[in-house]
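Margin note from the TA: students keep mixing up input and output lines. Inputs are the sequences; the output is the structure of the whole complex. Example:
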Amino acid sequence: MNKTGLWAVVLVSAVFAAGCSSTGGSKGGAAGGDGAGVSTEAYGSVGLTADQLQQAENRTIYFDLDQSEVPPRYYDVLRAQALYLIDNPDMTLTVEGHCDERGSREYNIALGERRANAVTRFLEAEGVAAGRVNAISYGEERPADPGQGESAWALNRRAIILY
Amino acid sequence: MVRWIAVLFLCVSAAVQAELTIEITGGGENAIPIAVTPFKASGVSVPEDVAAIISADLYRSGRFRPTDPSAQPELPAGPTDVNFPLWRSAGIQNLVVGEVAPSGTGYALRFYLFDAFRGEQLTAETVTAAARDLRFAAHSVADLIYERLTGQRGAFATRIAYVSSTRGADGKESVALNIADSDGHNTVGIARSADPLMSPAWSPDASRLAYVSFEGGQPAIYVQEIATGKRERITAFPGINGAPAWSPDGTRLAVTLSKGRNPDIYVVDVASRAARQLTTHRAIDTEPAWSPDGQHIVFTSDRGGRPQIYRVPAAGGPEQRITFEGTENTRASYSPDGKSLTMVTRLDGRFQIGLLDLETRGLQILSSGSLDESPGFAPNGAMIIYASSEGGRGVLSSVAVDGGVQTRLASQGEDVREPAWSPFLNRRF
């Protein structure tokens, strides 16, 4: 696991622990003093709390074959992510783009960058400060599922928000 | 005549390397019958089967059909003891007889090539090498035999660079950049990382490799001197730094940079690091490769929808699409004579190795996998090495351009990928 990924896991655990002892509160009100934005406020129309937003399933956007447009089914969760990120302006943020193994490796680096950029642009359009997001493409070099076939490939065509 | 072999000495941070194992299948229909009789050891112990190394090389080329020693009609005691009628009746026209003798602390490989039908000696030469280069000396003998009988320079005494990766019990991936002999032996690692390593490219003098490393969480292009391990970072712009390709004069790298926008082709001066933008298009432009005369650069672009191959003058100018067959064509590179391109062609959902004749525009599919990629020519243009997938594992394959012989190189417990065939290495003094 890379450093950023590890940090994300640590952060999720910390927020989860803090969230358990929290007794609720208003927007940002239950912050534990670490600046990580612990809150039980629900963000966006999907009503996801900070600790829910930090779950991998809400930070991962899966793409269709050869596509780099954010599928509409992710709009609501990404809007919630943007609101959360605006609330926590000090969090550093990376968006990784990934591909399945089909196609050439360097072309996939480029395609993965398009996916990372599509998510970045979406977050920026929703108010996240331009330049705050570090977008990086790993192409097909870091599959989530190293297997072959449609089900593995579908899991590998993704962008991940890491903070 | 004595030929000296100068081999690249690799300075390596020691790590145990998994050896590539070789498997050869198929056979050229018009392959030339040849017999390489076992080399006689004269006053020295020889740790390798020299004749077997030579035979395997010749077979791999698709141009020869070597006879197994068990099917050879005799083992001549020496070059003056060949019973030509025996070979004639066995239908074997070309015959190699040789011996290994000590030379300093190394070896001298003396061989004689006969036309058994005419009872004539075609050539006799000696190749000397340091003890550690015995296999390489055998490859050099194969090169000389190949050249004498085909008129084309042999490319067996060369190396391949490739990327390998293993996943530890903890799930962590370890990636290495390796160099091996052209037959997969003598693997040495020259770089290792927990982050991706990609796109190795040999400098034209074979002294350096350019490659992409994601160490530190951002991609950058490095150039590493093979003999010393000394390396320099050439580009580390925001966004993509990828797909390095050396200019034929070795002074520049064509690369892909996105600079936080979209990927375009740039030409970077290796000494000054000055970068000149060559293509400017909002689509993906990547995977540049130089024509052998340095006049053109081909690259992959999806400006027409799906990725196809385009060509641009290296000095800048109009960009022209040059592939039209296949759903997609990517990662093209020129043959050494500049007359054809090898690339990945997507046809009916399969990714295979294509060979495009630039004059006739004829496209030939050379591989039979469904996820074949990263093709590149041997320096004599006779073979193409590429990466394929077998049972979910990455293996290297090579195919004779006009032969039908397929070679597979696999590594136990490792994924291997992104092969790059070195330029010619043996300097002849």
